[in-house]
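We emphasize that the prediction below concerns an isolated chain of 987 residues; any contacts that depend on oligomerization or on bound cofactors are therefore not represented. The input was used exactly as deposited, without trimming of termini.
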Amino acid sequence: MKRLLSRVVKLGKVPRSARRVCPPVNPQVMRSIVGTIRGIVLLLLLFQSSVDGQSSADASQNEAQTNNVPANRSSSPSLTQSSDAAAEQRMGSARSLTPQRLSTGSYSERQRATLEMWRQRTLSRQMVQDAARDEDPEIAERAQWILRQWRSGNLPGPQGEKTRPTGGSRPTALATVLEQGAFEAVLIAVEESAGTIEFEQIKRRVAKSLTERFPIYIDSAIADGTLPDFVALIDAVADNQEMATSSWDLKRHLGHALDLSNCLPKGAETWVESERLIAKSLFASINGDAMNAIELAGQAGDLDTGRMTKMINDRWDLVLESERQRIDQSTDVQDSVEAYAWMCAAAYRLGDAESLEQAKAFLVKASAKEAKAISELRWRILAMHDAVDEAIRVAAQDDQASAAKIAVASSRHEAAIKHTGFDLSLLTSDLESWVDEALAEQSELSREGVGQLAPTVERLYALARLLVRLHDTENAKEIYRRLDSREFIVTPWGHSLLDLTLTELSWAKQYDLVGEIAVKRRDNNTVERTRLIIAKAAGTDKETFDIVVAQMQQLFPRTSYYDRFRMAFELFRGRVPDGFDSERDFERLFVTLPSQAAQREALSWKTSERTEAFGEGLLDLFALHGKLDLVQRGERLLAEKGDLDAKIRLAEASYLEGDFRTALERWEEVAIESSRFDASTALITLDHGVNYAKSLVGRWLVARRSGFTELAEDYELRLRLMAMSPSLKLRHELAEYISDQGQSQLAVETLGQLVIQNSYGGPEAPDQFNVAVAYVTAISRLKEEHPKAVTDLDRMNAEIMKWSDLAVLGILNEPYLERTFVGLPLSVRTTKLQYAIDTKQGSLAEQAIKQIEHYDPLNIDFGERLIPKLREAGFEEIANHSIDQLMDRGLVYASRYPFDATSLNNFAWTAAVNEQRLDDALLLSRRAVMLEPDSVVFRDTLAEVLHCRGDDQQALAIESACLLDQPDEWHLHQQIEKYRQATVQQE
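Result of the prediction step, given as a token string:
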């Protein structure tokens, strides 16, 4: 094992045989070592020149010929010189470099002068640039040759072999030089290209390569001790703030003293002033310098960036002040609505009741003639800030269906009924006629070619959502089944009414009905848009779903398309369909896939498409049905075909199994494959860098588990440097991968900076909501799994609150469903309650509970999960009051909707978990069991209520009967043991 692990140290950049991996070298120490080596080399050169001056002259001529140094056609043969003269000439060449030497003297002297100027760029750069414009054609030609070598990254001397560019355009050639790790050569090429027609193209190409293959290149720089050259190159080509941040991070790692006066890279000299100011603002925000960050963002003149900078630096007072000024100056309705929206957000967080009411008073005064986007902004910001009822009223002025959907999401059932426009008391008798009227209205619109959904149909969808929420799924399904026409085109993008119904079913999580209505018996196919929706409902991607449907024809050639489709859909839903033999047909499905892949590949030249037969989606299908042997065989097959994701999964599996040797070998293979750069992989993709970084994560974990502390520390340092990538996407993916591997500490550190940097990010940046959620999740994992690693619990809790809140605000203008603008703020208030419990703040807990109850008065999640924690934290009075309030609302709901067995059961279970209101819980639970006596879940709740009341004998009898129906349910076994022990104690 030690021998195997020691091999990893040599891996750094695997394709180069002469590379060794070591921790970054202190620049001063490196300069000292290099100086010593240069001294020794110089002595050797002097000795060699004194022995064989003629051979040196011949070598110069050969080198010139090898590199195609321009020669004068009329030049005479080279002159023979004494070795002493040759040595003296080389010693004095640095002092005597002049452009005239390129055209005077013998041929060998002119060749030697050309090579000396090429080698000694620092001394000769200016004179070569001047000589390139000389009137003497030979001087100009030789100088231009030198410039071409520099601009191509072709350097002489010890680096000659590894900086030899390949053919092709200069930007392409430099990509090859980059792969060789010759960062100084590329930097010289960039600098010498300044002022040429190719300069911008070269900079962009080098910047792109550095961004996408950053982990590979920085590992190369560490291995070769060329990290300063690498950083200098990034600094020179930085063309955006992401590269500027990478340069800044790396300079700080090298010990550079940076402040706002020198934080920008050299490449920023060509940026416009606003870009420079925003980049400086970003650096100030990362450093915690809030006031400078805000001032710089304000100077940049971008309203959104200025506001965002104040928000992430917790200066809501300044947000409120600037939005007030904006309101005073605004003459446009949309601008006023936006200003009042952000005024509302700021006042809410500041606790400024007067300003909050002023903002809400303006926002609720919506006009029916307003643009839809303005109306949506009004109700969304209201919904986000505890004004759900006001949001419903504003939405109703523009769209009754949207108002109904907001009401459904917030358990305001009476308001939902009102805005759907349908009387639930007439549901049984009139439902069919309601659907007929909606279809007639849609038919008229479709006949006119409008391409929009009829308002009555939209209200029927809202009614169906309400019925699902009330657990009246039969009537909801009847609505969905009737709204299944393919002929009615209801969007400008060509979606049919069936497509929208399938989408609504997915949103309502009625997945089984998707499979039921998506295809009719007479169908021979489905359109691509429809299959995309179906596949998503099945929990997979369209390509994987299509493959399985096609394979069903191979396995069951006599079945119809309808049957093949239904079988495939059932498989993806985790069920074995009728006619499918689990023991035989999964193996048959697996075996037929590779041959089908070969056929598709052979035909790909006709279709310009390649659909891989195997993929992670298909392996997930086998795993869903417990066919782990097929999963392993599939992973190996994919790995043999060069699928890096499969190789990564195999390495992860070996690590989890404790087979560190195999895991390490597989991680090495991933590193080699992902860092390869040849004709087939010259198209650079970000995945190369991500996979290479993942391979280092794997090797890091193996080293840690194997006790190689020093090696693990080296790997961790390299990972930290890789996380300084200019690609925000790579930083995000790497941090999430590190977090998924249980290394939350490093993930939190990486995401802590990324979440700020991404706030400033442009259109290529990852979704800020996802980045913030990843950060909050990593902190939560760290607190739960490694509590000793949390050195500042208060700050971590505050970070969770802050970024959860900002994440929700970040979706304000995004096209999410109506329920999102209720559900996400509700989750933030739930997080707030958890924070209050952790910090033992009773008043904050009461405030959070009040807000939760406002968003969803029937929300049992916090009642089941958090109210018991309140009691454990010592807030028993608050906990008892909260459960009383929840149960009172539950009893009112039960009286209005007495046939909703699921809700009755949920309220009873919540009461049992809290061991409060047990009489009411028993009443509700018995009613639920009476409505659905076959439900094991409902009977289990009844047993738990009886146990809490002390009737363990009856609880044991009920739970034992449940076990007969579901003998494999582990929860039932646990409950039976609990009741049995309670019975023994009573006796």
